Amino acid sequence: MRPIFHDTETPPQDLVIAIRQAKHIVVFTGAGVSAESGIPTFRDSFTGLWERFDAEDLATPAAFRRDKELVWGWYEWRRMKVLGAQPNPAHRAIAALAQHIPKLTVVTQNVDDLHERAGSQNVLHLHGSLHHPYCLTCGQAHTFAPGVPNEQGGGRRLSPPACSRCGGDVRPGVVWFGEDLPQRELLCANTLAQACDLLFAIGTSGLVYPAAQIPILAKQAGARVALINPTVTQLDAACSWSLHGAAGEILPRLLQAAFLQI
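User: That's the sequence. What structure does it adopt?
Assistant: Structure tokens below.
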């Protein structure tokens, strides 16, 4: 592992050169990136009705079967938080970086759309999306009405919509604990990691598998890996660079150092 750099220090020059020379960059993001936009993570304390629940007790197929109104209400609370949030400087820097690199792909564990709203074009969602629910019975996609939901999703039970095809319950379009990741997205992410020459792991603890293997696959295939996270993680040992601090502070500075513009 290279020395650890902090967000108050000058960006490592060899990383700046690696960015300039990269032909294909994979940006692998976790909850820490969205947290900088005010999106609560599973480790944060919840409010209102939700403060007495553990996220892992709500984000399971069994929880939905047991109390679908409770689970749907919680996910609408989360979706409302996302729709009320804005992309932060890290999201915008990632989108801007793509303008300078022949190929850049975002692989995210996040279930929001902040990368897309910041302007990123190629975003692979490993854990699904809050914005793409589907029928539990027949798999039909459900489309939300346009606009930001009102306060009804902010703190109480809600009945899930009925499927327009079969009348079954619509479920959140995320991957729950105990469910497999979507195989197409996982295979694509693994392939991209093994084909890139530089991978950024940003705002991820490296604890959630199989997604956490993606930086390891990149390193094993010969790519260099740069970690950006406020604290030390299990991925530090696998990285060529460890930059500790807020992604919204570090990424714009890296971009400016590499290309003299944001």
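The chain has two domains: 1-38+86-131+181-262, 40-84+134-171.
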